[in-house]
Recover the amino acids of this structure.
């Protein structure tokens, strides 16, 4: 995926640490998970053979304008490495899982904005809106934090309407992965595996959109995510060929 600014910028979004207080034992476990998770992704990432593919009508560079991006929770591990150091703002839940994921992705150059579809969603959306106004792309794990799996939620469409910026989506398919027996079927890539990222075409959301328009955009986002997911999963075995060359095309 496209190039973007790196490093931190002055922004009012809330960092990964949230208002919840963890017990001493939880803090120790949290520190160990973050340390292990960071180094696992940091060491695994360079071994992956990654190709990025775009649908017609997809935006290929974040230098043109920031976007409202969406992807499924299952591919958060490869996405964390592939889109590192781009300053992307990501909604992170207040749960224990959300806390350690927020701390891990922060070490890869993301900024976690606290909130979820069930807790303080308005506060989080306002933080993401400010990030867009400051020129940063924002991203949603659309079926997080607890599902239903592969089901679009309305947050990105509402944010697209409020900001006037289009929606994009992507899926990262992994040829060889350990798949967890969790609600999201999270993929943990095996070393040296092939990864195909398929980026969907842009979906504009009119700022004067009616309820019917918003429902149409939500359905279109669902269809686009389903389509890029199916494409990536069907073609990941071709990564490394002339059709899907390996390279850092972020």
């Amino acid at each position: 995926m496209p190039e973007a600014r790196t490093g931190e910028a002055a922004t009012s979004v809330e960092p990964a640490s949230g208002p919840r207080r963890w017990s001493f034992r939880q803090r120790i476990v949290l520190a160990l998970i973050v340390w292990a998770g960071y180094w696992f992704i940091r060491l695994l990432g360079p071994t992956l053979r990654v190709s990025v593919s775009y649908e017609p009508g997809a935006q290929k560079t974040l230098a043109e304008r920031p976007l409202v991006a969406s992807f499924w929770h299952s591919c958060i591990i490869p996405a964390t490495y592939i889109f590192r150091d781009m300053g992307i703002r990501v909604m992170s839940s207040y749960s224990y899982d959300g806390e350690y994921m927020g701390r891990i992705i922060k070490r890869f150059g993301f900024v976690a904005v606290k909130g979820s579809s069930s807790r303080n969603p308005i506060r989080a959306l306002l933080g993401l809106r400010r990030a867009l106004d400051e020129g940063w792309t924002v991203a949603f794990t659309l079926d997080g934090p607890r599902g239903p799996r592969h089901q679009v939620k309305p947050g990105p469409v509402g944010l697209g309407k409020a900001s006037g910026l289009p929606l994009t989506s992507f899926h990262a398919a992994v040829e060889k992965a350990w798949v967890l027996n969790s609600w999201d079927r999270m993929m943990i890539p095996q070393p040296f595996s092939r990864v195909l990222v398929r980026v969907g075409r842009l979906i504009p959301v009119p700022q004067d959109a009616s309820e019917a328009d918003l429902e149409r955009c939500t359905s279109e986002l669902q269809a686009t995510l389903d389509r890029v997911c199916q494409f990536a999963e069907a073609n990941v075995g071709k990564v490394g060929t002339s059709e899907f060359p390996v390279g850092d095309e972020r």
